[in-house]
Design goal:
Strands 5, 6, 7, 8, 9, 10, 11 and 12 form an eight-stranded mixed β-sheet that branches. Strands 2-3-1-4 form a four-stranded antiparallel β-sheet. By secondary structure, it is an alpha/beta fold. Helix 1 packs across helix 3 (40-55) and helix 9 (130-138) packs across helix 10. The protein has helices spanning 3-19, 24-34, 40-55, 57-63, 70-80, 86-91, 105-113, 120-124, 130-138, 142-150, 167-176, 205-208, 217-224, 243-251, 265-278, 328-346, 368-377, 386-389, 397-406, 416-419; strands at 156-160, 182-183, 190-193, 212-214, 233-236, 257-262, 283-286, 301-307, 349-359, 381-383, 411-414, 424-431. It starts with a helix and ends with a strand. It is globular. The chain folds into three domains: 3-118, no CATH class; 157-212, Alpha-Beta Plaits, CATH 3.30.70; 217-431, Rossmann fold (3-Layer(aba) Sandwich), CATH 3.40.50.150. The structure holds S-adenosylmethionine. Belongs to the class I-like SAM-binding methyltransferase superfamily. RsmB/NOP family. Keywords: Methyltransferase, RNA-binding, S-adenosyl-L-methionine, Transferase.
C-alpha cells in the first residue's frame, strides 16, 4: 500500500470505531481480515495512525473546527502531530490510486490557521466533562495525570503464578523466548514487557502452562492488598474476566473457599479455562442484578472483593477510544450502580471480615463519591488504613512503604503518572465484630 492509501484506510477504520462500540483493536483486526492485500507493515502503519489520532482526538477535533470524521482527524494529525508542511499533506491527498481525495479549501485553511489558544481540556487531551473531576481530585497535578493517562503506550505486565512456578523460572522462560522482562517495581510477582514490538504472550509455553497471566501491575497491587490468605472464604463479587479471581486464589495459596460471582453467565464461563490453566478452583456463581443467588453466604465471608463495574477510565492509555465514548450521564449511572452493589456485597461479609472496593476508574464520582455514599449508610464498616492492609502481601518491601505514603487513610489511588500502572482506586473496610 502507498503511504496515501494507508491514510485513507486509517480514516475509514476511525469512522468504524466512532460508529460502533467495539475496541479499536478489534476494529483494526477486522479491517486486516477483510483486506488481505494489506501486509504486516501496512497494518502496523494504519494502527499507529489510528492510535495517534485517538490519543489526541480532542485536540484534533478542536483544530479541525469540530469535525469528527476520520478523514478530518487524519489530516489534523499530519499537521499537528507529525508537523508535516502543507505541501506534503497535499501530496498525500492527490486523490490518485487508493489515496484520499484532495484537500478542500476549508481543510487547507484549518491546517494553516494553527491551533491558537487551546482550552485546558483540549490541551490535556481529556473529554471535556472529565476535566472538573480531574481538577478536584488532582489539584495542580491534573494536567500531568491527564497527559500520562492518554499519551504513552502502556507496557505489558505479567503476573507470575507462584502456585506453579517461581518468578526466577518464569523470567528465564521469557528470556528463552527472546523477550526481555523486567521486574515490576511494586508487585513481587510482576514482570514487565515492552509493548513494542507487541509480544504474543498467549502463544508462549509459559502462558499455556498457566505460569504467567497478563495483568497490569495496578490490578496486581489491588489484589494483593485485599489481604486474601489461605483458609479464608473469599468472594470475588464482580469477577468479570477473572483476572483478579486468579490473583486472589494465588494469595490464598489455593486453600480455602473462593467464590467468583457475576451477573453475566458468559463471563463466568470464560473464567473456567483460566482457573484450570492456573491450577486453582473456585465456585462460579451467577447472581441477579439485585444480588440474589448468594444468600447462603450472608455474613459468612472473610473477604468480599468488589471490583465494581466502572468507566474503565484508568485504562484509557490502552483504550483511548473509550475516553470519547464516555458521557457524564453514564458516569452517573455507574456511580449509582456502584453504591448499590457495595451495599449488596457488604451483606456477605462476616463480623470482623473485610470488604474491599476497587475500580479501574480515574473519576472521583466513581471512587471517592461512591465510597462516601456507602460509608454514610454503613456505620458497621470501619475503614482499614492502607498501611495496615498492605500487611503480609505480594508486594515488595519498598512498595509497601511507598504505597502507604501515597494512601489517603483507607483509600488509595494508582495511576500512570503516580505509579506507572493503569488507574485504580481501592478502599478497604472491616465489618464490626
Ligand atoms: C470491572 S469488571 C470486573 C473485572 C474482573 N474483576 C477482572 O479482574 O477481570 C465488573 C464486573 O461486574 C459485573 N457486574 C455488573 N453488575 C453487577 C452486579 N449488580 N453485581 C455483580 N456484578 C456485576 C460485570 O458483569 C463485570 O463483569
Amino acid at each position: 500500500m502507498t503511504p496515501a492509501a494507508r491514510l485513507a484506510a486509517a480514516a475509514s477504520v476511525l469512522d468504524s470505531i466512532a460508529q460502533g462500540r467495539q475496541p479499536a483493536e478489534a476494529v483494526l483486526k477486522a479491517w486486516g481480515a477483510a483486506n488481505r492485500y494489506a501486509g504486516s507493515k501496512d497494518r502496523r502503519a494504519i494502527a499507529d495512525r489510528v492510535y495517534k489520532v485517538l490519543r489526541a482526538r480532542g485536540r484534533l477535533v478542536w483544530a479541525m473546527g469540530g469535525r469528527e470524521d476520520g478523514r478530518a482527524l487524519v489530516i489534523g494529525s499530519l499537521s499537528l502531530i507529525d508537523a508535516l508542511p502543507l505541501e506534503e499533506i497535499e501530496a498525500l491527498h492527490s486523490g490518485e490510486g487508493y489515496g484520499p481525495r484532495p484537500l478542500s479549501k476549508q481543510e487547507r485553511a484549518r491546517i494553516t490557521a494553527g491551533e491558537g489558544d487551546l482550552p485546558g481540556w483540549v490541551s490535556a487531551g481529556l473529554p471535556e466533562f472529565a476535566v472538573e473531576d480531574f481538577k478536584t481530585t488532582f489539584g495542580e497535578r491534573w494536567t500531568e495525570e491527564a497527559r500520562e493517562l492518554m499519551a504513552p503506550r502502556a507496557p505489558i505486565d505479567l503476573r507470575v503464578n507462584a502456585l506453579l512456578t517461581t518468578v526466577a523460572d518464569a523470567e528465564a522462560a521469557l528470556h528463552e523466548a527472546g523477550l526481555s522482562p523486567e521486574p515490576t517495581p511494586y508487585s513481587a510477582y510482576g514482570l514487565r514487557l515492552a509493548s513494542e514490538p507487541p509480544p504474543n504472550v498467549q502463544a508462549l509455553e509459559a502462558f499455556k502452562a498457566g505460569h504467567i497471566e497478563i495483568q497490569d501491575e495496578g490490578s496486581q497491587i489491588v489484589s494483593w492488598l485485599a489481604g486474601a490468605a489461605p483458609g479464608m472464604t473469599t468472594v470475588d463479587y464482580c469477577a468479570g474476566g477473572g483476572g483478579k479471581t486468579l490473583a486472589l486464589a494465588q494469595a490464598m495459596q489455593a486453600q480455602g473457599t473462593l467464590v467468583a460471582c457475576d451477573v453475566v453467565q458468559k463471563r463466568l464461563d470464560n473464567i473456567r479455562p483460566r482457573l484450570t490453566r492456573a491450577g486453582v478452583a473456585a465456585d462460579l456463581c451467577l447472581i441477579g442484578q439485585n444480588g440474589g443467588g448468594v444468600e447462603d453466604l450472608n455474613g459468612q465471608a472473610d473477604l468480599v472483593f468488589v471490583d465494581a463495574p466502572c468507566s474503565g477510565s484508568g485504562t484509557w492509555r490502552r483504550r483511548p477510544e473509550d475516553a470519547w465514548r464516555l458521557t457524564a450521564e453514564e458516569v452517573e449511572r455507574l456511580h449509582l450502580l456502584q453504591v448499590r452493589i457495595l451495599g449488596q456485597a457488604s451483606q456477605l461479609v462476616k463480623p470482623g471480615g473485610r470488604l474491599v472496593y476497587v475500580t479501574c476508574s480515574m473519576l472521583s464520582r466513581e471512587n471517592e463519591a461512591s465510597v462516601d455514599a456507602f460509608e454514610a449508610t454503613h456505620s458497621d464498616f470501619t475503614p482499614v488504613a492502607i498501611a495496615q492492609a498492605l500487611g503480609d502481601s505480594g508486594l515488595t518491601d519498598a512498595a509497601r512503604t511507598e504505597l502507604a505514603a501515597k494512601a489517603d487513610g483507607h483509600r488509595l489511588r494508582l495511576s500512570p503518572a503516580c505509579t506507572g500502572t493503569d488507574g485504580f482506586f481501592v478502599a478497604v473496610y472491616e465489618r464490626a465484630a
